[in-house]
Amino acid sequence: MSLTTMILKMSEGLGKTCAIFFLTLLFSLPLGMIVALLRMSRNKIISSVTRFFINILRGTPLMLQLLAVTYGPYYLFGISVSRNKLIPVVIAFAINYAAYFAEIYRGGIESIPAGQYEAAEVLGYSKTQTFLRIILPQVVKRIMPSVTNEVVTLVKDTSLAFTVSYQEMFTIGKQIANSQTSFVPFVVAGVFYYLFNLIVDRVMGLIEKRLNYYK
User: Fold this and answer.
1) 195: domain CATH number?
2) Residue from 143, 72, 133, 148 nearest 107 by CA
3) DSSP 163-192
4) What is the pTM of this model?
């Protein structure tokens, strides 16, 4: 198989890799905020349950979580696995990354001085208005480097979808490598991921630059 043919075959899975990436961010970023707020709840039960949830997701391999979400329903309840494996893959990725984003959000929220809440209260802002108009914009600015790091990691983690035989780029590359007894497909995959990360890093860098409005 020529290098050109190999690249074309692997590029067919690139769209599925991008689908995992963008759908994971679409669901995990807002879900992470919800989890963070539950984690910070004054209700001890809610806070403890949420903390346990976060610890489980951060303390176990994403690969294991992919297998659990994809095949767990069948082994536990006899429910047939969906033919479209993108659904369980995105669910597993979104839940896992929501746990990481939740802790990033929590760190950002807790870094805001208490005086800002008090000042907003004096000005007549409600708690919701204070959070949305005063706290959240500052939190977003402060957590961008950490969020960027997680987003870059997500690009590479999409390759774990091969564990459930989802035909994304790395899975196709692995199949070609096995059939051709060659390491070249892995090199090609590495180049793809590197270029993808360059684009992501550039975009996130531009966002960070826009948020540095005091410089």
Assistant:
1) 1.10.3720.10
2) 143
3) GGT--SHHHHHHHHHHHHT-SHHHHHHHHH
4) 0.88
